[in-house]
């Protein structure tokens, strides 16, 4: 019997005749104006994961998303704070489960891949499995493809390799991950925060390619290429400051030091030749900028210590939670 069949037969337990209780799976679907697709999404996950609890968290929809989700058999809840990040934070806080599967409610992700993602998480004893997107759905907006490649490259360079599709909305996480994740994002940058959190704590993660389809004709994307792209870029910068503060502030210090050298080199050369400082304002400015460089470097050293303490606290919180 395959792992997937074993999981289905035991409702994600280890075996029919074994003592451990079956693993509880929760499917989490954040939604905003997804009337056209949410019913089919819920039914698709119900067919793929018959024993799972399926939650639809409505985010102030103005259409009939709530009615369609209820008709399909989902557990419907609401989050009043607008933004996907706010919804994900609420879902992970409220729902109790051993395994959390997150997907979008727009019918672009294949529900039939869910058992494979969960099977890999369980058998590999992983903390997160991300479904990397492949297929025709990626061709609909070229700007999103270019931005996704850029952000993946940036995260890989700044935080280390581990992901090729950080913005995928289809992923499975363990209870340990879900309950120790300090979600701070309010919008679509939540996926970036999830990836960086895993890289920062060096958690066990993996990616599996999954077909990514097109939205239904009467469903519109809520992602703005430029507005949300800037927010994701800002999130990467701020998390780099929080996770790797010494490198962040050292780069700023190096920039200030370079400016100070450019300003002060002629003044120093003139002083060495004549013993005079004819350009006093330039000398004062160069010295002031060099002081800023020194302060930035000192800030980096101090904040690095704080960051290490925060990392240890997050790691301890992670270890306090039982594994699935």
Describe the structure.
- With 324 residues, the chain is of the alpha/beta class.
- It folds into 2 domains: 3-241, Spore Coat Polysaccharide Biosynthesis Protein SpsA, Chain A (Alpha-Beta Complex); 245-320.
- It has 11 helices and 7 strands.
- It has helices spanning 3-9, 38-48, 65-71, 84-94, 114-123, 142-159, 175-180, 190-200, 227-243, 245-274, 280-320; strands at residues 25-31, 53-58, 75-78, 99-102, 128-134, 171-174, 205-211.
- The protein has a 7-stranded mixed beta sheet with strand order 3-2-1-4-6-5-7, sandwiched between helices.
- The two termini are 21 Å apart.
Keywords:
324 residues; elongated; seven-stranded mixed beta sheet; Spore Coat Polysaccharide Biosynthesis Protein SpsA, Chain A; alpha/beta
């Amino acid at each position: 019997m395959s792992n997937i069949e074993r999981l289905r037969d035991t409702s994600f337990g280890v075996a029919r005749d074994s003592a451990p209780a079956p693993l509880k799976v929760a499917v989490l679907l954040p939604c905003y104006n997804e009337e056209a697709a949410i019913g089919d999404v819920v039914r698709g996950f119900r067919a793929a994961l018959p024993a799972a609890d399926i939650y639809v968290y409505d985010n102030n929809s103005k259409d009939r998303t709530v009615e369609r989700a209820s008709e399909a058999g989902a557990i419907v809840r609401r989050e009043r704070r607008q933004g996907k990040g706010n919804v994900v934070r609420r879902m992970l806080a409220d729902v109790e489960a051993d395994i959390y599967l997150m997907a979008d409610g727009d019918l672009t992700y294949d529900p039939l891949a869910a058992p494979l993602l969960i099977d890999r998480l369980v058998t590999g004893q992983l903390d997160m499995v991300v479904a990397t997107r492949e297929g025709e759905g990626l061709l609909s907006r070229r700007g999103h493809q270019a931005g996704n490649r850029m952000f993946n490259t940036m995260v890989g360079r700044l935080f280390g390799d581990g992901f090729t599709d950080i913005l995928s909305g289809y992923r499975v996480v363990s209870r340990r991950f879900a309950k120790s994740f300090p979600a701070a994002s309010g919008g679509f940058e939540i996926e970036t925060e999830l990836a960086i959190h895993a890289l920062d704590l060096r958690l066990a993660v993996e990616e599996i390619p999954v077909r990514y389809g097109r939205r239904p004709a009467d469903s519109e994307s809520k992602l703005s290429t430029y507005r949300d792209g800037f927010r994701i870029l800002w999130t990467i910068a701020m998390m780099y400051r929080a996770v790797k503060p010494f490198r962040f502030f050292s780069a700023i210090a190096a920039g200030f030091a370079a400016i100070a050298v450019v300003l002060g080199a002629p003044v120093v050369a003139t002083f060495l030749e004549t013993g005079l400082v004819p350009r006093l304002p330039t000398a004062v400015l160069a010295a002031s900028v060099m002081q800023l460089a020194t302060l930035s470097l000192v800030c980096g050293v101090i904040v690095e210590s704080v960051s290490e303490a925060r990392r240890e606290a997050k790691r301890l919180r992670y270890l306090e939670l039982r594994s699935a």
